[in-house]
Amino acid sequence: MNVLLIGSGGREHALAWKLAQSPELGKLHAIPGSAAMSGLAECHDIGQEDFDRICAFCAEKEIGLVVVGPEAPLAKGIADRLSAKNIKVFGPSQKGAMLEASKQFAKEFMQKNSMPTAAFSILYSVEFAREKIKANKKYPVVIKADGLAAGKGVRICQDEAEALEAVSDFMEKRIFGFSGSKVVLEEFLTGREASVMALVDGHDFLMLPVSRDHKRLQDGDAGPNTGGMGAVCPVDIPAADLETIKKEILQRFVNGTKQARMPFRGVIYAGLMFTAEGPKLLEFNVRFGDPETQAIMPVIKSDLLPLLYACACGDLAGKTLELNDGVCAGVVLASAGYPENPEKGRAITGLDEVARDVTVFHAGTALKGGGFATSGGRVLTVTALAPDLAQARARVYEAVEKIHFDGMQYRKDIGV
Q1: Architecture of domain 2-91
Q2: What would the pLDDT profile of 90-114 be if each residue is shown by its tens digit?
Q3: So what's the pLDDT on residue 116?
Q4: If 0-12 CB within 10 Å is exposed, 13-18 middle and 19+ buried, where does residue 62 land?
Q5: Residue 246 has what pLDDT?
Q6: pLDDT, tens digit (0-9, with 9 covering 90-100), for 148-173
Q7: pLDDT under 70 in the chain at which residues?
Q8: 338-361 burial string, b = 16+ CB within 10 Å, else e?
Q9: Residue 32 preceded by cis peptide, ω within 30
Q10: CB-based contacts of 86, cutoff 8 Å, min separation 6
Q11: Is the pTM value of this prediction over 0.90?
Q12: What's the per-residue H, E or C state across 329-340?
């Protein structure tokens, strides 16, 4: 089967790495892909939102399955366009993608389907938002830009001044553009976070191993929010919480999409907080997480390709997932200035010194002068699968010490 992978980041590099191992794979193509992915897939200089050219490409190359990595093409309806051409696609419909593209849509979907989540209100104007904040007596509170913001549109505000600043940044200064035209004011939940992803075919779901992302830039969860600075997988979950996740979140999600006539054949990512009252939903994403995917793929022993194809065909019932023993840790290496203004063009050295049992996934890199250089904020994710977390962390950080580029930032407490 010929497969087309849409995207160019670390998540897509990890997916390409896993798909390339499938005995059912014919040829793997990537749009646009990256220099690092070119050893696994044939990359094509086509825009990932140029749907007309993508559809034509699928016909020309006899693509049997399209796997969509990023959220933006999904939010703009790539799955609907491909499905209309009878091309199998792993990724939800545009309506389904609204669960990530609009925080309001997602929260109202959770509420309607009785999923455990934080209390919230929707603030439609700056004036109304300021009134609500000045009337609020309980801090911290969470303020979220409604639309897509590359994982950075969430502020945990410790007092009224910080909350008003978030409203000003999102709704007046429009630092995330139209995504901040309205905001969600949400109850602050305490506990440990985890990322739960499941493959969904519109009728059934297959849960992937649970991972944990580290979103803050600096050690000890300090500094600004980022797209993610590292992840570990799997994470142990108490049996009672696992049942809650399956019955009250994932099953109700599937039931809710069916009731809403919202075609969903892809992966649902549930960001959870494990509170004293049990797991509660923080957000939905409608694609594989990044950097969680880089930590999850090495843990999956099963062939991923037939599972993704089964989702696209609505035929996931009865499918199972076999896992490798051990724990995978992934550490993100980021550019100087990330997340606000990352520096680019810095030469990367030491990649050829990394041990063979360590896998490095490229996110923001490009070829320059015969080697790789930085080309984005999050540059690399260094991963290792080992018998336990302590050994996985030791192998990862030993590899990280061999890699260098000017201004390199990374957390030293991933998995702690």
Answers
A1: 3-Layer(aba) Sandwich (3.40)
A2: 999 999 999 999 999 999 999 999 9
A3: 96
A4: exposed
A5: 97
A6: 887 788 899 999 999 999 999 999 99
A7: none
A8: bbeebebebebeebeebeeebbbb
A9: yes
A10: none
A11: yes
A12: EEEEEECCCCCC
In angstroms, the CA 98 to CA 86 distance is 22
Instruction: Please state, in angstroms and as integers, the Cα–Cα distance from residue 343 to each residue in 48, 139, 346, 375, following that order.
Output: 24, 35, 8, 8
Which of 383, 359, 199 lies closest to 288 in space, CA to CA?
199
Query: With contact defined as beta carbons under 8 Å apart, do 200 and 264 qualify?
Result: yes
Q: Which CATH architecture has domain 191-313?
A: 2-Layer Sandwich (3.30)
Looking at residue 55, what is its pLDDT?
98
- 27-54: pLDDT as tens digits: 999 999 999 999 999 999 999 999 999 9
Q: What is the arrangement of strands in the sheet containing 63-68, beginning at the earlier edge strand?
A: 42-43, 28-32, 2-7, 63-68, 89-90
Is the CB of residue 120 less than 8 Å from the CB of residue 184?
yes
Residue 66 one-letter amino acid: V
pLDDT on residue 149: 85
> Which helix or strand (DSSP H or E) is residue 161 part of?
helix 160-167
Q: Is 265 helix (H, G, I), strand (E, B) or coil?
A: coil
3.40.50.720, 3.40.630.10, 3.40.50.2000, 3.90.600.10: which CATH number matches 327-400?
3.90.600.10
